[in-house]
Structure formats: C-alpha cells, structure tokens
C-alpha cells in the first residue's frame, strides 16, 4: 500500500493533465459484491477514477487507481470502468494513460475479479498498435497488474514507492526482500518492462507529458509535427567523438538537444529512444560501445556485438515506432554477435526477430554507419539489404564481412608463404565506405559535423513515403 506522503488518485490526475481539463466518467459507479461483508465497506468509485482530459492540448483518457479504497484492488466494476474508457479511446483514436497504485486482484470478488482482469487484458490487446498506451507506476503493481503494465507501449516508474512484480520477492526460491528486492525500481531498471525510472512523482508527470506531446494520437496520425526552433543547418562538431555513446550523440543531433532515452539501464549496449528532427518525432536505435560520464570520461565499455537482450529491446521499440508511423534512425557500429554459451541459446531467434522488425517496418528508415558494420549483424541493423531507404556512412566507417586482419588469417591459414599484411590491405580495400558506395550499398559518405542537417534532409525527402505490404495476417518471427 502506498504511504501517506504520496498524492491521492485525483491529485495525480490534476498534476498530469492541463489545468481544469479533466472530466470524470463513472464517478457514481461502485462495487456490486456483498460477499465477505463487502456490503459494509465503502469503496468510492470502486477504487479507480476514470475520465478524459488534455495534455498540452492533446486529448487523453486517464484512469488513476485509488490506494485508499481497498488498496486500489481490481474488482468487477473497477475493471469495467477501465475497459469502458478503452472502448471510448479506440472509437475516438486517443491515447490511454494508467496511473497505477494497486494491490492486485480483489480477493473478495473471486471469479468476478478474474473476469475483470480478463476484460482489461482483452481491451489492451485490441488497443495495441491502434492507440498509444502508457502506464505510470506510483505504488504497488503486482501479479496480474504487472502484466497490464507490460502490455502497455511505454511504462514509467517512480523510484521510491513504485513496486513492480509478478511474484513478490519473498516468494521467489532462495530469495527474500532484504536479500534482493526484485520489485524495486533499482532492480526493475535492469529488466525489460520499465522504460523510464523517475525520481519522484513530479518527474513521472513531466516525462509522460513530454512523451504524449511527441507521439501521434493513434495509428492513423503522424506525431510530433511541431515548429522547429533549432537551426536546421546546425553543425555538430562533437558528433565524431560521441558516436561510441549514442545517447550523447543523439542528444547532440536532436532539435534543442532533446533525447528521451527508453530502457536506459537494460541492455545498455543497445540504445533506444526519441529525438525530434525539424519538429518530426524520430525513433532511434543505436549500437553502444561506451558510456560517458558528465565530464566526458568513459565510465563503461561494451563489445560492438548484438546481444539477445539488445535485440529484444530494439525489436520491440521498432514495432512500436512502425505501428504509430514514427520514422526510424539507426546508428550502426557492430562487429558480430555476442559469444557466450548463454547467448548461444537465444541469440539466433532474437536476432531473427530484430531483422524481421526492421524488414517489416514500412515507415521511413535511415541508417548512419558510424563505425564498423561487419557480417550478418550489420545486415540485421537496418541495412539497405533488408529495406533501409537511405544509408549514410562516416568517412572512417568500415563495411564488410569482418576485420581485414582476421579475414586474411582465415583465408590463407594453409598458405605459409602468403603476405598476410598485403592480403589484409587488399581485403580492407573492399571494406571501406568508397567500395560500398561504388556498389550502391550506401548512398552517401557524410562528414560527422554535418550529420544533423543531412539526416533532416533525408527524413524530409522520405516524409511522403508510402508502401503497400503484401496481404498477410501477421508474421511469425
């Protein structure tokens, strides 16, 4: 249960939406159950406030769970209220935001509560890819409610009081809360559900408002078409020094240095998030080999390899961007796949899913090769071969099967008289940007400082892109 210092359910809505814009729906609805002395218990609004309002003049539907009413547990009517605003949101093409503070299923209502959970799951599944779904976790989000959060497109979590778990820490074999609090924000930031961990409720509201302002209202709209106040021809002189840490590079590229990074501490070797280019929202996927501190020093380093978690993170993000007509930018610097026994169990299927996500996305897709682009891993990372519309490369980028020295050793392993240095140089001549450009595999070699304006021109050119996919129900990869 949330502590007494947290906001009420109504206060949370008021802090999220534009002033005086919220209209409550179903305020008079309450429980029907009389089992287990429920007739003696007051459950105002059945523990959830539902309605609609505006965020920066963008319409949204909102539900906010009330932990003071039976711990915000979900019963029959509670679920019906949430399902109802989903019905309205899909009819009107408007995002749904859930402010979660819930102890789970209302045990007193038994199978009616179970049916309620199923009703919400069904509505969330139907809404997936039609309208953006955002969850913000302020208190408990356990059991089936955690599944609700995971079914959302974006999930935010408050650092101090937010708790996300399918099974509570004390029920996990060999674990207990004091040993490892698997429900805490510190644990969940390294897992795959939460996109952003926020320091306090005010930061949650700020992040959700920022996200809503750059997203389309639904899958038939285009989001983030705001007037750009940044210089379209602005150079980025530090870009070449930043490409190892794409979070820094993307922040430098974006309008007014805006970059909203998602799942920052999960699969750090893969960066995902949103920037704006000439007012257009662009989803970004990038390989990372370093994390820089505020002083510019290198804090962490990673191999330039695709991992299972990194592929999973990127594929999910790409599908979300494609569903909502958000163009995709890739910064590619990859030399292969992760090489551990554990990775070998999953990397093929995860890389396949990432490859399919890029190939199937029909939004504008631009790839900028910032370092090495080797082998099948490069093919997977939004290469022209699987459908990138435009591919650029920095002058010192390398494109090919593998490192030239390694290739020479493999090709001439049985030739003791071979001049490996000469053979490596010959192989390298086929791996440079000029060789790739001559074959049409990249469209242009650009200077690092001109990356912003070149990318803006590319996405403007692709703005009217239209593809008609072959008729099928869905892929199976």
From TrEMBL:
<keyword id="KW-0808">Transferase</keyword>
<feature type="domain" description="CoA carboxyltransferase C-terminal">
    <location>
        <begin position="231"/>
        <end position="472"/>
    </location>
</feature>
<feature type="domain" description="CoA carboxyltransferase N-terminal">
    <location>
        <begin position="1"/>
        <end position="227"/>
    </location>
</feature>
<protein>
    <submittedName>
        <fullName>Carboxyl transferase</fullName>
    </submittedName>
</protein>
<dbReference type="InterPro" id="IPR011763">
    <property type="entry name" value="COA_CT_C"/>
</dbReference>
<dbReference type="InterPro" id="IPR051047">
    <property type="entry name" value="AccD/PCCB"/>
</dbReference>
<dbReference type="InterPro" id="IPR011762">
    <property type="entry name" value="COA_CT_N"/>
</dbReference>
<dbReference type="InterPro" id="IPR034733">
    <property type="entry name" value="AcCoA_carboxyl_beta"/>
</dbReference>
<dbReference type="GO" id="GO:0016740">
    <property type="term" value="F:transferase activity"/>
</dbReference>
<dbReference type="Pfam" id="PF01039">
    <property type="entry name" value="Carboxyl_trans"/>
</dbReference>
<dbReference type="InterPro" id="IPR029045">
    <property type="entry name" value="ClpP/crotonase-like_dom_sf"/>
</dbReference>
């Amino acid at each position: 249960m949330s502590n007494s210092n947290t906001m009420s359910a109504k206060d949370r809505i008021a802090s999220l939406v534009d002033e005086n814009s919220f209209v409550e729906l179903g305020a008079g609805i309450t429980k029907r159950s009389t089992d287990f002395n429920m007739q003696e218990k007051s459950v105002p609004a059945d523990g959830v406030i539902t309605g609609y309002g505006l965020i920066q003049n963008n319409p949204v539907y909102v539900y906010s769970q009330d932990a003071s009413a039976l711990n915000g547990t979900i019963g029959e009517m509670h679920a019906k209220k949430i399902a109802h605003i989903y019905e309205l949101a899909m009819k009107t093409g408007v995002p749904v935001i859930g402010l979660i503070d819930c102890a789970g299923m209302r045990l007193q209502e038994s199978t009616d509560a179970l049916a309620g959970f199923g009703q919400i799951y069904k509505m969330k599944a139907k809404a997936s890819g039609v309208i953006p779904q955002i969850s913000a976790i302020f208190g408990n989000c356990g059991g089936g409610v955690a599944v609700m959060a995971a079914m959302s497109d974006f999930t935010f979590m408050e650092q101090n009081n937010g708790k996300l778990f399918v099974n509570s820490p004390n029920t996990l074999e060999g674990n207990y809360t004091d040993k490892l609090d698997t429900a805490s924000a510190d644990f969940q930031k390294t897992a795959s559900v939460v996109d952003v961990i926020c320091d306090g409720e005010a930061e949650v509201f700020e992040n959700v408002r920022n996200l809503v302002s750059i997203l389309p209202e639904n899958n038939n709209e285009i989001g983030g078409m705001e007037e750009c106040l940044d210089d379209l021809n602005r150079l980025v002189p530090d870009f070449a020094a930043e490409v190892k840490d794409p979070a820094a590079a993307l922040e430098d590229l974006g309008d007014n240095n805006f970059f909203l990074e998602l799942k920052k501490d999960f699969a750090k070797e893969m960066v995902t998030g949103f920037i704006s280019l000439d007012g257009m929202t662009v989803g970004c996927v990038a390989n990372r080999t370093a994390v820089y501190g505020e002083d510019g020093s290198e804090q962490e380093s990673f191999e330039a390899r695709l991992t299972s978690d990194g592929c999973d993170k990127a594929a999910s993000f790409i599908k979300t961007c494609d569903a909502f007509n958000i163009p995709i930018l890739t910064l590619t610097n990859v030399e292969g796949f992760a090489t551990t026994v554990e990775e070998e169990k999953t990397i093929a299927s995860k890389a396949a899913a990432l490859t399919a996500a890029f190939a199937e996305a029909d939004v504008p897709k631009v790839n900028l090769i910032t370092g090495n682009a080797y082998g099948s891993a490069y093919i997977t990372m939004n290469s022209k071969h699987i459908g990138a519309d435009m591919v650029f490369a920095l002058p010192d980028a390398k494109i090919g099967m593998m490192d030239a020295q390694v290739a020479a050793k493999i090709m001439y392993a049985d030739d003791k008289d071979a001049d490996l240095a000469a053979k490596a140089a010959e192989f390298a001549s086929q791996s440079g940007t000029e060789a790739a450009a001559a074959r049409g595999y990249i469209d242009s070699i650009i200077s690092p400082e001109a990356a912003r304006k070149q990318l803006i021109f590319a996405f403007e050119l692709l703005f009217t892109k239209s593809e008609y996919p072959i008729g099928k129900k869905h892929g199976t990869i």
